[in-house]
Structures are given as structure tokens and as C-alpha cells.
Amino acid sequence: MAKKLLENPGLKCPRKLKLGEVLVREGLITRQQLNLALERQVVFGGRIGTNLIELRILTEEEFKDFLSKYYRLRAVTNEMIASLSEEAMYALDQKLIDTQKIIPLMIEGKKLHCAFLDPDIEKIDELRFITGFDIIPYAIPEMRFLDILERYYGKKTEKRLFISYLDRFNPKTEALDTIESIKKAFSSVDNPEEVIDILLRGTYKMAERVAVFRIWDGKIIFWKAKGLRIEGFEIAKEESSIFSGVIEKNVFYRGPLHDPQMNVPLINILSGIPCDVLVMPLTVREKIIALFYCDNGNDAVLDARVVSLSKIASMASLAFEIIILKEKIAEIPF
Fold first, then answer.
1. Does the structural domain 179-331 have CATH classification 2.60.40.350?
2. 51, 127, 154, 170: which has the highest count of C-beta atoms within 10 A?
């Protein structure tokens, strides 16, 4: 966590320096913390501020305060986002929003208040010319910008990490970006929904698409997923599919999605036939209660992280047993 915030209205360092360097010079982060964020950025992408927030080195408010002083602009507030009007939302063309990284926030007479991911004078002047409005610019962190695109514009954005953008703004949600953090989360579960949430958050981006299917009442039913939109998936447990061998032998499957005719419902969801998938049973006392599915899209193979995926799935099975043991302990009479 950062030890102090900038107190002056501007920055002591020239803005020609890279943002990360300015953060170090202003004493908000250390050189080691910057290097850690840069290493993470290479793997997961995103801007340096996003990685610093996800690493819990800076809070969103601390970084937003820094951006305000870095650009010498006011920062977008939560109240402004909550009161975003439909009139303002559609004041700009969607293509302009996407290409220029601008979000209109509020119309006030001849003034259009806008959040800029990359504010600069030329971009603001160009927007004034295009719209005829007097543009009032605000600074905004990348994570909050993407959150608005998802929530208000329904725009699907790339989820780079193990938790959704909305989860990142929830202080109760811990980042699951190390095996140790995943172990800790599994060890404290209280219900099956928590187990599945941890499993998906812990494995998403190890594989591009991850999903869990529940086995219930002789059926295989979709439970939850990340990287996939699934609705209404349900097949008979006895129906031949990629899941059949996993259930019959209680072993994992790794390979292509073979026999397309037997897997039509799944192929429809995946919008194609993946060349490499992993399906693992989630068991409680050797009884399969769910199936864990993952792939890297239809055209890519799974990489060396398959071992990690398998271990995390095994942790999920143990977590289910932890829940059962907790229930039994609670039922012991005195």
C-alpha cells in the first residue's frame, strides 16, 4: 500500500517522464514495486496503473488522485458514474468512444463532461469541433473506464486476469494470482458456490475459457463459467459426449473435441470445435459431482499450465469435502 499521497496541486516531475517513473519519483511506489508491476504487465497486459491496483500496491483512490495531478484535471468520481444519464451516454458516436477512449458523463447546457483515458489538448479540441460542445475533461483509471464500458454500454472487454472488473472494485474480493492465495481461499470456504467461484477465478487466464458443469439428477447442467456465455445447457448424463469417458472412468481428458456429432450442444456454445480441451472430474469421496472444462479458444492449444489447472481442480474437490466436514462438526450434539 502506498505510504503517502501527493499533496501539491501539480507534480514535481515533468510529464514527459513515463507515468511509472513519475510514481517512483513522487514516492508513491518504490522502484521494486514498479518492476513487479511491469513484469506483471508483460504477462497480463493492461496499463501500469491497472497492474499496481491489482497488486494492491496502490488503491484505486490513490491512483486516481495521482492521475488528477499528473494530467492537472479533476478525476471522475463514483457519484458521477452512478448518475450517468442516457442523454450523455449517447452524446458521442460509439466508434468515437472506442477509438479515442472517451466516455461522456454529463450534459450541462452547452457543456459536455467527458472522461478521457488519454487526455490531451489536441483530443479535447478535436472533440469540441466535432460535437459543438464545450468539453470539460476528467481523468479516469483504465479499470474504471472498462467497467463503465461493460456496465453501461454492454461492451464485452477482454478480462485479462482471474477476477472480473466489478470484483476488482470490491474490497472483500482478494486477488487470486498466486497458488498460495488460491490455497488460502479454498481452505476457508463455507458453501459450494464459493468453491466454484474460487476455481473459476483461480484458473481464468491460465486458460481462455473455463466452465463448470454440475451433475444432478441424471443430467449434466451448466453451473458457472468465465470467458464463455452459456445459457440453458443441459444434457442427459448417459448421452454420449466428451464428458462420457470422464464420468465413466473418473479420469481427466486432454485432447481435441472429437466426434462433433456427439457434442453438438457444447460445440454450439463454443462457436466451433476446439483443437485442445481439458475436462476434469470434481469429486467428493470418489463420487463425481461436477465437471471442470477449459480450453484456449477454438484454434489454440493449452500450454504447460495444464498441470496447474489440474492441481487447482484437485483443490476444489478437497474444498467440497471441507464443507461437508464443517457441516458434520456443526451437527455434533452437546
1. no
2. 51
The CATH superfamily of 78-153 is: Type II secretion system, protein E, N-terminal domain (3.30.300.160)
Nearest to 64 by CA among 49, 79, 86: 49
What b-and-e string marks burial along 195-212, b requiring 16 or more CB atoms within 10 Å of the CB? bbbbbbbbbbbbbbbbbb
Per-residue pLDDT reduced to its tens digit, 263-318: 999 998 888 899 999 999 999 988 999 999 999 888 888 877 888 999 999 999 99
- Spatial separation of the C-alpha atoms in residues 121 and 109, rounded to whole Å: 22
Residue 44 cell numbers, joined: 497480463
What are the backbone dihedrals phi and psi of residue 292, each rounded to the nearest 5 degrees, phi first? -105, 125
Torsion-angle region of residue 308: left (phi > 0), alpha (psi -120 to 50) or beta?
alpha
Task: Name which of 22-26, 99-103, 167-171, 274-278 the model is least confident about.
Answer: 167-171
Question: Do 78-153 and 179-331 have matching folds?
Answer: no
Q: Where are the domains of the chain?
A: 19-71, 78-153, 179-331
Amino acid identity at 74: R
Distance separating alpha carbons of residues 257 and 296, to the nearest angstrom: 12
d(Cα 291, Cα 211) in Å, to the nearest integer?
8
Residues 6 or more apart whose Cβ sits within 8 Å of residue 35: none
Residue type (1 letter), 62: E
Can you list the alpha helix ranges (DSSP code H) found in the chain? Answer: 19-25, 31-44, 48-54, 60-71, 78-82, 86-89, 94-100, 121-131, 142-153, 165-168, 179-187, 192-203, 242-249, 264-270, 306-331
CA dihedral 151, 152, 154, 157 (to 10 degrees): -60
Q: Enter the DSSP assignment of 77.
A: P
Annotate 146-185 with b (16+ C-beta within 10 A) or e (fewer): bbbbeeeeeeeeebbbbbbbebbeeeeebbbbeeebbbeb
**Distance, CA of 103 to CA of 145 (rounded, Å):** 8
Whole-structure pTM value: 0.51
